[in-house]
Amino acid sequence: MLRLATPGFLRFGQSDTLTATFGGGEANVAVSLANFGIPVEFVTRLPKNDLGTACMMELRKFGVCTDHVVWGGERLGIYFLETGAVSRGSKVIYDRANSSASGIQPGMVDWADVFDGAGWFHWTGITPAISQSAADVCLEAIQKANDMDITVSCDLNYRKNLWKYGRKASEVMPELVARTDIILGNEEDAAMVLGIHPEGVDVTAGHVDAAAYESVSRQIMNRFPRCKKVITTLRGSVNANHNSWSGVLWDGEKRYEAPIYQITHIVDRVGGGDSFMGGLIYGFLTWPGDDRKALHFAVAASCLKHTIYGDFNRVTVDEVLKLMEGDASGRVSR
Q: Does any domain span residue 111?
């Protein structure tokens, strides 16, 4: 998507300029993995115009393969961002009607060719939210990945302002989630997408209790037997500029908890969950069997993302490992 954001902390009605960048759920994950040295491909549908080409070239700049991009449709989807401050939250306006991605149809992508030699497929709840046909293509991809014994992960990513085509997330998402191996979400995602609620959690209080999410993870695994791991991002919102940030992983038997980071001066929190997912996938691929280390890497990577403007997490493995080892000094590297 094209992201158009007001500069600094200006409101929509204050600014006469908008800063243009690119981003989007799965694309953000792809860029993270490419930065970490993982071969990755992003599949979407783009309009055959200068904006579509610019979007593709931006992904290629990070080393993301775009060989299976489908060209066609009317326009590139847009979202407008107003960054909040202190007690005023950020605001997003979507403009995705009649976008190329929303018009994608089953059969447009040769998923067998896409998945040739691949070991992992990731999707987010944003894709099936934009149109029925996008949801159908997402299911088509997941089914082919299942047939080819490819690990499937998802970020539930509930966006209430996107579900506008006549169906609710709770009606569409369960069929997709049922075919997924690794599930990431937060308390709102679980409630709005799956109807599963945590107990004893108040995210507005600036504190989160990881133990309270174990019941949610158990419920997800009981409902979706294919699922092997459930990961929850733990965000405590003190205010728009100060969040606590952590994560918890449940593997069906044991709960792993990551350290809690206090992010006191957020530069840009958009893409925080995607950077978490990118770090998590990297961790699972790099340290198989060490879920604790994978979780810690994901939380540290996404903590750093909050210091970077734009959707993409422009950090290296070494920078993430440095934070994991306890160096949060921010000293100049010379």
A: yes
Q: Note if the pTM is more than 0.90.
A: yes
Domain of 137, in residue numbers: 105-180
CA distances from 228 to 31, 192, 224, 281 (A): 25, 21, 9, 14
Cα angle for residues 136, 180, 193 (degrees, 5° grid): 70
C-beta neighbour count of 149 within 10 angstroms: 8
Number of domains in the chain: 1
Q: How far is CA 5 from CA 19, 109, 274, in A?
A: 5, 32, 19
Does residue 168 fall inside a structural domain?
A: yes
pLDDT tens track for 14-72: 999 999 999 999 999 999 999 999 999 999 999 999 999 999 999 999 999 999 999 99
Q: Give the tens place of pLDDT for each residue, 150-176.
A: 999 999 999 999 999 999 999 999 999
